[in-house]
Automatic annotation (TrEMBL), chain A:
Official protein name in the record: PBS lyase
InterPro entries for the chain: ARM-like, ARM-type_fold
């Protein structure tokens, strides 16, 4: 039976208090935490609170609200903060951080050389993963640089994978140099040989 | 600088890139709708139309009028001009099959007879979608009399909502409706078709801007959302926010149906895909 919805009252404009909302980010009730993350949209002064909460937040829908807030406020500071919590949680958090950095290419790209130079392997891996999908013209150049200087062969292979995602794959020369850096690693030789063959390059 | 010249009654304006960007950003902030470069000509033509109507001789004057128009009438006029509203009855009706064959039976399993099942069509444009949903349920779900089914239609465009409430449609709009259903749910009105009063009076139409948190708070505990071919007009940031507000409006375990070219998996991980009657819909988990 069809019934017409009864007139709903005009929703009241919620009272917003920044301090209360920041406190609510850590409330035991996930609904309150989620509302706090939404209420703090556009409040630049609280991006570190949002990132701090994101690193420990177990509820997916609260994390989504925190991420939307941070992505909406995209800045170099937000990109820095997101990179700093990359390895603080589980795989879901790592994926979300990457997704957020992809969505702010201009703000993220300058952070990438810093991450690639980090002594922390996880930070370098994050950079390669971000560069593999980020829509930015400098990404290819930075990934090629990884092939020439990164000591960890698995991170290099991640960069090769990223380069194959680019529309204009033109890194044949770099691939050969990469293969020469790891002559004893069969997987590297196989991957490079296969890619060069598919590009029609002699090896 | 913008050039303006009079040619008869009309005023022609050539927008500078800076003016266009200012307008674009303002409109985006207010509505979440973004236009790509390919749409620039379309947008500029509509802006010119409004400038002529308001007799604004410069973009600066018109933009000031738009920004400081406290009751939002001018912005609403622009929204009405810049949004696409073409639709027809029983469009993409495979999703209505999914509704009656899978979604509603699943919701009904957990609900006592007599309770409300709330369905929301957004954007509803001139009303074809919510009326189609109503007809499809009445015709194809045998348990429809056991529940109080509320169907709401919302749109950002006030002109199309007035047409939806009126319920009068061209022959082209009802061409996919069988003659038997036309006889049952419509009556002739000149060359047009008038939706029957029973349907017209049972659907609640309201103006809602999807990215307006306060307005969206009016919609709560929605069991099924039809949000087809809307989110494609949003950029990534607005789309994320819109999806979250829709999520908020839905009952736990509720379903959302998107357009055939849209995929929730590319927008958000909040929902899980389900397949009914050969089509993918997305479900809000009972618990996050």
């Amino acid at each position: 039976m069809l019934v017409k919805r009864s007139e709903s009252a005009e929703p009241a404009v919620p009272h917003f208090d920044e301090k209360t909302s920041v406190r609510d980010l850590d409330d035991a009730d996930p609904a309150l935490r989620r509302h706090a993350a939404q209420a703090l949209r556009g409040v630049t002064a609280v991006v570190d609170d949002l990132c701090r909460r994101l690193a420990v937040e177990p509820e997916r829908d609260v994390r989504a609200a925190l991420l939307s807030n941070l992505i909406g406020q995209k800045s170099a500071e937000v990109a820095d903060l997101l990179a700093s919590i990359f390895d603080k949680g589980d795989a879901a958090l790592r994926n979300e951080v990457m997704e957020a950095l992809w969505s702010m290419p201009e703000e993220s790209i300058d952070k990438m050389p810093v991450l690639l130079a980090s002594p922390d392997r996880k930070q370098r891996l994050l950079a390669v993963n971000v560069l593999s999908e980020i829509p930015h013209p400098h990404a290819v150049e930075l990934l090629e640089q990884v092939l020439l200087s990164e000591p960890d062969v698995n991170i290099c292979l991640g960069a090769v994978d990223g380069l194959t995602h680019t529309d204009d794959f033109r890194s044949a020369g770099r691939l050969a140099q990469f293969a020469a850096r790891f002559p004893e690693v069969d997987q590297v030789q196989f991957v490079v040989r296969s890619l060069l063959r598919s590009l029609g390059e002699p090896r | 600088m913008m050039s303006a010249e009079r040619a008869g009654a009309a005023v022609f304006h050539d927008f500078t890139p800076d003016e266009y960007t200012r307008f674009y950003e303002f409109f985006y902030q207010k509505t979440g709708i973004s236009f790509n470069e390919k749409k620039a000509y379309f947008v500029k033509r509509r802006l010119q139309e409004r400038m002529s109507v308001r007799e604004a001789t410069s973009f600066r004057d018109y933009f000031a009028m738009l920004r400081f128009d406290l009751n939002g009438v001018e912005l609403q006029q622009l929204v009405n001009l810049l949004t696409v509203n073409e639709t027809y009855f029983l469009r993409e009706d495979y999703q209505f099959d999914a509704l009656v064959q899978g979604i509603l039976p699943e919701i009904a399993k957990e609900r006592t007879p007599g309770r409300v099942i709330r369905i929301w069509s957004m954007p509803c444009s001139t009303g074809e979608e919510p009326y189609s949903i109503a007809i499809h349920i009445l015709e194809n779900w045998r348990r429809s009399d056991e529940f109080a089914i509320e169907i709401c239609g919302s749109d950002i465009d006030s002109v199309v909502l007035a047409k939806a409430r009126e319920g009068r449609y061209s022959a082209r709009s009802v061409q996919r409706v069988s003659p038997a259903l036309r006889r049952k749910y419509f009556r002739p009105a000149g060359e047009d078709f008038q939706i029957c009063d029973e349907l017209r009076e049972s659907i609640d139409f309201s103006a809602i801007n999807l990215i307006d948190r306060i307005a969206m708070a009016r919609m709560r505990d929605v069991d099924v959302v039809f949000c087809r071919n809307l989110l494609i007009y949003f950029d990534d940031v607005s789309r994320r926010e819109a999806v979250e507000l829709i999520y908020e409006s839905m009952a736990p375990g509720g379903f959302i149906c998107l357009g055939h070219s849209e995929s929730m998996s590319r927008m958000s991980s909040l929902f899980r895909p389900r397949k009914f009657a050969g089509t993918i819909v997305y479900q809000k988990p009972q618990r996050p």
